[in-house]
Amino acid sequence: MADQMLTGGEDQCMIWEVFANRGLGFNASQGLDGNMEDQVEDFSLPPSGDTSLANCTSLSVQASKMDTYKIYPNPATNEINIRVTQNYGRAQVSLVDINGRSVYKQQMDLNGTVTVNFGQLQAGIYILNVNNNTININEKIIIK
């Protein structure tokens, strides 16, 4: 209802997918008041014949990124590979630690597979950003 009021329902498909993935799908039931034993978990989306969802396409972020790029290995030691499916030209590759500090920044030619050596980073969680006018990648990277 809030999505319908605020955005005209443009996010309804994504909202249904998120709720269904957590067991709050189309046929889920909260049960009766005062009884916590009669709840029904469901992972299904609304039926395909539901005209309010006629423009939904089910394409997860994982599926769409796999068609464009792959970052591996993750977890990594101090080096990762960025493989792209086309030539994206010059891009800025940066790494930010969990405190928001930039720990690596460099311009690179993004074509095929590019190996990035981060040097001797402390083990931890980082955010990798690869960015130019045609591609924007933000991925959590674990350095072990």
Automatic annotation (TrEMBL):
Residues 71-143 form the Secretion system C-terminal sorting domain. It comes from the Bacteria. Keywords: Signal. One of its GO terms (cellular component) is extracellular space. InterPro entries: Peptidase_M36, Peptidase_M4/M1_CTD_sf, Secre_tail. One of its GO terms (molecular function) is metalloendopeptidase activity. The keyword Signal applies. NCBIfam families: Por_Secre_tail. This is T9SS type A sorting domain-containing protein. It comes from Subsaximicrobium wynnwilliamsii. The lineage of its organism: Bacteria, Pseudomonadati, Bacteroidota, Flavobacteriia, Flavobacteriales.
